[in-house]
Amino acid sequence: MADSGEGIGNVPEHERILQEIESTDTACVGPTLRSVYDDQPNAHKKFMEKLDTCIRNHDKEIEKMCNFHHQGFVDAITELLKVRTDAEKLKVQVTDTNRRFQDAGKEVVVQTEDIIRCRIQQRNITTVIEKLQLCLPVLEMYTKLKEQMSAKRYYSALKTMEQLENVYFPRVSQYRFCQLMIENLPKLREDIKEISMSDLKDFLESIRKHSNKIGEAAMKQAQQQKTFSVALQKQNNVKFGRNIHINDRITEERNEIVLKHTFEEEDENEEEVLTVQELVDFSPVYRCLHIYSVLGDEETFENYYRKQRKKQARLVLQPQSNMHETVDGYRRYFTQIVGFFVVEDHILHVTQGLVTRAYTDELWNMALSKIIAVLRAYSSYCTDPDLVLELKNLIVIFADTLQGYGFPVNRLFDLLFEIRDQYNETLLKKWATVFRDIFEEDNYSPIPITNEEEYKIVISKFPFQDPDLEKQPFPKKFPMSQSVPHIYIQVKEFIYASLKFSESLHRSSTEIDDMLRKSTNLLLTRTLNSCLLNLIRKPHIGLTELVQIIINTTHLEQACKYLEDFITNITNISQETVHTTRLYGLSTFKDARHAAEGEIYTKLNQKIDEFVQLADYDWTMSEPDGRASGYLMDLINFLRSIFQVFTHLPGKVAQTACMSACQHLSTSLMQMLLDSELKQISMGAIQQFNLDVIQCELFANSEPVPGFQGDTLQLAFIDLRQLLDLFMVWDWSTYLADYGQPASKYLRVNPNTALTLLEKMKDTSKKNNIFAQFRKNDRDKQKLIETVMKQLRSLVNGMSQHP
Fold this sequence. Notes:
The structure is a single chain. The protein has 803 residues and is mostly helical. Among the domains are: 200-230 and 277-407; 423-577, Orthogonal Bundle (Tetracycline Repressor, domain 2), CATH 1.10.357.30; 615-771, Methane Monooxygenase Hydroxylase, Chain G, domain 1 (Up-down Bundle). Helix content is 77%, strand content 1%. The chain is built from 28 helices and two strands. It has helices at 2-23, 29-38, 43-150, 154-168, 176-239, 252-270, 276-279, 283-294, 298-317, 327-350, 357-379, 385-404, 410-441, 452-461, 467-471, 483-502, 509-537, 543-558, 560-571, 585-613, 630-645, 651-673, 683-701, 718-729, 732-738, 751-768, 772-777, 779-801; strands at residues 447-449, 476-478. A two-stranded antiparallel sheet has the order 1-2. Helix 3 (43-150) packs antiparallel against helix 4 (154-168), helix 5 (176-239) packs antiparallel against helix 6 and helix 20 (585-613) packs parallel to helix 22. The chain is elongated.
């Protein structure tokens, strides 16, 4: 039962497979047949049985169909056999007709071939004419191209090439000669590029050589234009009565002459200045630019041009090693740079794209940094202020010229302020030499004048005002020496020299005024002050010269306000409306006076020491000479004469010098008594020493310098006086009793000083028997001396324990 059920189930499946095989293309039967093998076992055998059954059924159907159509097939074969006979007859007739027709048309064929041959020749001739008409213009244009190349009309030759390529060659491109021409055009283009590039290189070399002349012409033109503008402005100011940089050495008539000369010189030189177009032929650049533009290689040309010009810029910016030695070296450097950038500016404005504003700005910024570095380095070598001033003028003209071509130059004017500081340094060094020469040539004595003319000459040089001096009859003397007016004149000359650098810096009058005042302050506080201090410290400068130097500095200090007015006049700045810098004359000359005063005190003390060294006391003398020592009288006479000279000094200076001299003299005399090398002193020597001190006191009491109150000056010798009185009166009981009391008679006597001097007198008494009378009369007195010395030692020891 199971097998039969399985067979029934497979029969429809086998029929389906057979239907698919019959209806499907033979190429796709594979999957269907594979399904037969994928089924249950024995399925293949069953399928084959089913397939055999199907084949037998189809054979039966074919046999039925053939039996049905057999009679019709037999009838058709019979009819076809009948037609074959008629066909053979028709073939014979057609062959005969064709032979007779061919024999009749042979002559016609010959004539027709002749006609065809003539028509072909006619057509070929027409074609040749047409093609020649196409080729002739090409050949004519190519001939024209050759002529343009020979005539070096390269731009026109390139245009001709374009016409040949775009218009003529396409018409005859099939011909070999055209191909040869086409192949030759790139070579011609390369030849044109090489020739034009060679011309460009020659041009670049030419402008490199002519940059100096180009820059010189441009700077000259800018300078003339500026000079003309300044002169015109001055003329207008003079015409309208304006105050323009007035100074006392340029008169109005000279201004008019200078202006007239300036205008005439401008008229003469205007024709001589050539433009850059007149100095340089720019056609190679234009031609090369056009050629490369036509060739479509404009970028290559621009890159090459810019690269070469940058190389030339670096060469131009490289200064010569000795450029700083002469102004011509700087001038060549500037003119080459100006020439370079004038050419670039011209190229910028007459061409499109070859150079751009961004390119020129970049090139200028690079050049400007290099220029500033070079000028900063080389200007530092300049020690001549005139050369620095000429360098400044060149930089101003250089900056103005390039500014006229649109290049920013603010950094150059900033550099000028650095150079201005250096210029001031060179001026200060130069004027230091000038001041030293003036001081060397001065005789340090008041200026004598014998008549009114000499008086006016001095007054014209130095602003001195003294009504009392004016009333005095001739001959008379100015209080200052000859160096004062010379110094004043030289300070004004320094201001003029400093003003020369400040001009044309595009700064306001206020800024120029401030710069002048600052540089003048430097001259006063550093240069002049240093020269004065060096002068004061020179060994050969004596007391008289020092006194005169103090007087001179006083008058120079008073003249500073006139220098301020002078600066105000030449800068045309009102002191009421502007906060101006003041001149530091007070501090400058005050320092110099203090130094001179200190030197006076030092030299006066040194002179006192020289006299004291001449002292020749006999310290063992028994009786005094009855008169003061000669060295001391000479010293006092010297002091009197010196203090007479001090009458021209300020009161406090003379008083301080007098007090210092007396104190130093007192100290020197005290040191002479207490000198450790001095072992013995007699009472006679003490008495002789007392006579000298009395003369010192008389000198102090005579008021050698007015202004002291009471016995102030005598107090300089109070220590000596009390010490000498103590020994001469021999008032030891009073000294010891009142020691330490504010009202003590011998308050200024130090126990150590008294002990030292007493020991020297004791040693003398042993040898010279000065105290013999004491020993003879009363040996108790000797014991008293011993007692006094013991008490003095105890006082000294007490002082050391309680300082």
